[in-house]
Design brief:
The protein is of the alpha/beta class. It has a single domain, classed as 3-Layer(aba) Sandwich (Rossmann fold), CATH 3.40.50.1580. It contains 5 helices and 11 strands. The longest helix is centred in the C-terminal third of the chain and has 32 residues. The structure holds hypoxanthine.
Length: 243
């Protein structure tokens, strides 16, 4: 089974067939998972903001989500996200497949009661699959790598914060760093593909408005899901059929 963790709009698009909704109890709390198929391949999908859209970024239970996926036998998980763009020169909308992240603020870990220090990062195999797939079929420009800066949210960033972080990162979001960390801690593979839906606050001379971001993220989610669905097929063929 392959995992997908998506943002607000993933379940507005009919992606799975034979869907079964399950609630999984984990040592970290309960997770809601949709199990179904994409082109006959078993997939488990988590909507990180909750099916009732009631979990803002700082309250997402990433540990429960990834532990639940692990319980289901998932080894490979693809994240889908929406990010703000920190590069004035990039055209929007575009897709970015970050190759590293900065997350100073979340303090996320599954290791609250033991001394374990993982070396974090996105999974290079999954990143490669996402990249090749996006290059093959995306109708949006594809940014092949970059640093994802994770803020705590839920508020957007100040101009001063963006002026600082743009020196170190290419896009800004609120979830993918935490997901990468817990996935690594649980011994799972994870990489993320993000739609760049807006220029971050102060990058261009325009007001950043949450409702506008949501509208654009909704418009762009379908393109992202097209790539993720194809990547799922490629992972299945490479990792499950060949072995
Ligand atoms: N900032 C943080 N997270 C985001 C943004 C942003 O500008 N756009 C989409 N997710």
């Amino acid at each position: 089974m392959i995992g997908i963790v998506g943002g607000t709009h993933i379940l507005e698009i009919e992606v799975l067939s034979d869907v079964k909704e399950v609630q999984i109890e984990t040592p970290y709390g309960r997770a809601e998972v949709d199990i179904g198929r994409i082109d006959g391949i078993d997939v488990a999908i988590i909507q990180r903001h909750g099916k009732r859209k009631d979990k803002p970024p700082h309250r997402i239970n990433h540990a429960a989500n990834f532990f639940a996926l692990k319980t289901l036998g998932v080894r490979y998980t693809i994240g889908m996200g929406s990010v703000g763009c920190l590069r004035e020169e990039y055209e929007l909308p575009s897709l970015i497949i970050p190759d590293d992240y900065i997350d100073f603020f979340s303090g996320i870990t599954v290791f609250n009661d033991s001394l374990v220090h993982v070396t974090p990062g996105f999974d290079e195999y999954l990143r490669g699959v996402l990249l090749d797939t996006a290059k093959d079929i995306s109708s949006f420009p594809v940014i092949e790598k970059g640093v994802y800066f994770q803020t705590k949210g839920p508020r957007l960033e100040t101009r001063a914060e963006i002026a600082m972080i743009k020196n170190f990162a290419d896009c800004v979001g609120m979830t993918a760093g935490s997901e990468a960390t817990v996935a690594r801690e649980l011994g799972m593979s994870y990489a993320v593909i993000c739609t760049m839906d807006n220029y971050a606050h102060g990058i261009k001379n325009e007001v950043v408005d949450y409702r506008e971001i949501v509208m654009r993220a909704r418009e762009n989610a379908e393109e992202c899901l097209k790539i993720v669905s194809e990547a799922v097929k490629r992972i299945w063929h490479e990792k499950f059929l060949k072995t």
